[in-house]
Design a protein that fits this description.
Elements lengths: L3 H30 L1 H22 L11 H16 L21 E4 L2 E4 L4 H10 L23 H20 L4 E5 L6 H14 L4 E5 L8 H9 L2 E7 L7 H17 L2 E6 L3 H7 L2 H7 L3 E2 L1
Parallel strand pairs: 3-6, 3-7, 4-5, 5-6
Antiparallel strand pairs: 1-2
Length: 292
């Protein structure tokens, strides 16, 4: 699975190449318009090369590499740029996004978030996380309007989960949780929103429905075992009787519990019912999870 960091890194590599091409073209245009500036810059480079050779031949102290001639040329260059209203960084690489300075992330306090210039990359990361079918679900919807008509129990669960995710993002504290409620009460919506928020903050996340573990490849199971944030939705004790699902789920739970990885299991049945009716090995692991 490609994480948001990997996807952004690939984009920034391509962006660096584009910036270099644009920088070279900008310098060429400037020199064509102001050949005197090119002459000054060439003289500065020649002077630096000459001094480096003197240092290699022990004819010049390294501390004296910037001599009077170079200082004179630099002052002449500065004056020329000012007189002709040329930007002093015309020969530098200019960032495509000034907001994040082409890092792909912006920070607020200890929390970093994916920059708005990486919207496409963020959507790609959502797809990698298993959220390709939920593009209409926006994390911004995760506010009081989304829960104003919910019962107190669900408000409390949402508030608790909100606090847990905040701890993960801010302090990297981990939890293994079960969130149970009746069907059609917004559990999936909530978990998708939080998965997207976690990815926005630079963590690796995965969302999977339990029955999809039936056909999950070893590579995908590995993603579920080691990502920073995992949601297993539609848990059913009946499905633990399926060998393929049970085998994959057991490996996932074992690895994440032993490594203290964040995990959220969503179910309609009560935790006690899930433990009592699940396969023995799965039940033992479920009993170690905290209930929201």
């Amino acid at each position: 699975m490609r994480t948001i960091d990997m996807i952004i890194s690939a984009t920034l590599s391509n962006r660096d190449a584009v910036k270099q091409i644009e920088r070279d073209a900008r310098v060429l245009r400037t020199y064509e318009k102001y050949p005197e500036l090119q002459r000054i810059d060439n003289n500065i480079k020649d002077n630096i090369r000459a001094n480096l050779m003197k240092i290699l031949d022990n004819e010049l102290d390294p501390e004296d590499i910037q001599n009077e001639e170079e200082n004179r040329l630099l002052k002449a260059r500065e004056q020329f740029l000012r007189t002709n209203c040329i930007s002093s960084d015309f020969d530098k690489l200019w960032p495509v996004c000034e907001k994040c300075d082409d890092t792909g992330f912006v920070s607020k306090g200890n929390i970093r978030r994916v920059c708005s210039c990486m919207r496409d990359e963020l959507e790609e990361a959502y797809k990698e996380a298993g959220l390709g079918d939920y593009s209409s679900v926006k994390p911004s919807l995760l506010d009081e309007k989304a829960i104003k008509n919910q019962e107190n129990k669900r408000k409390e669960a949402r508030s608790r989960l909100d606090s847990v995710i905040a701890s993960l993002i801010d302090k990297k504290e981990q939890s293994a949780l079960i969130y149970c409620d009746k069907a059609q009460t917004g559990k999936t919506f909530l978990s998708i929103c939080f998965t997207k928020v976690v990815i926005q903050c630079g963590f690796s996340g995965c969302y999977v429905k339990m029955d999809d573990l039936m056909n999950a490849s070893d590579e995908r199971v590995s993603d579920y075992k080691y990502c920073d944030f995992l949601v297993i939705d539609d848990f059913s004790s009946v499905l633990t009787n399926n060998f393929k699902i049970r085998f994959a789920l057991d490996r996932i739970l074992e690895t994440r519990l032993n490594n203290g990885k964040f995990m959220l299991i969503i179910m309609n049945e009560s935790p006690s019912e899930a433990v009592n009716k699940s396969d023995e090995k799965i039940a033992a692991k479920l009993s170690r999870l905290e209930c929201l």
